[in-house]
Amino acid sequence: MNPWFPAAVIPAVSILVTALEIALAILLLVGFQTRMAAKISAWLTLAFAIGMTAGTGIKSALNASVVAFSACAWLLANAEHYALRSLRKIT
User: Fold this and answer.
1) Which residues constitute the domain of residue 39?
2) How far apart, in whole angstroms, are the C-alpha atoms of residue 5 and residue 90?
3) Counted domains in the chain
4) How many Cβ atoms are within 10 Å of 63's Cβ, its own excluded?
5) How far, in whole angstroms, is CA 39 from its chain's centroid?
6) I want to staple 61 with a disulfide (CB 3.0 to 4.6 A). Which of 10, 45, 49, 73 is the partner?
7) What would the pLDDT profile of 28-69 be if each residue is shown by its tens digit?
8) Whole-angstrom distance between the N-terminal and C-terminal Cα of the chain?
9) Contact 74, 42 (CB under 8 A)
């Protein structure tokens, strides 16, 4: 999806990005460092959207919903409080 990356770098980048996605998913599901994880997720998915748009056109980015996911991550990053954190305080 990223035509400007050298071929030798692509395997390392794909492993790094996959590991980052897994780590961010775990952080968001657990509710640990939610704001930071959401900001990094927003930047990562925005990079995916830009790469997909540059590589294959805007239709592929819209079909994969990475633009919407990035927007949702930004909304989560800017939330005043998080429901998961509120539930922990109650119990």
Assistant:
1) 10-90
2) 48
3) 1
4) 10
5) 8
6) 49
7) 988 888 999 999 999 999 998 998 888 888 898 888 889 999
8) 45
9) yes
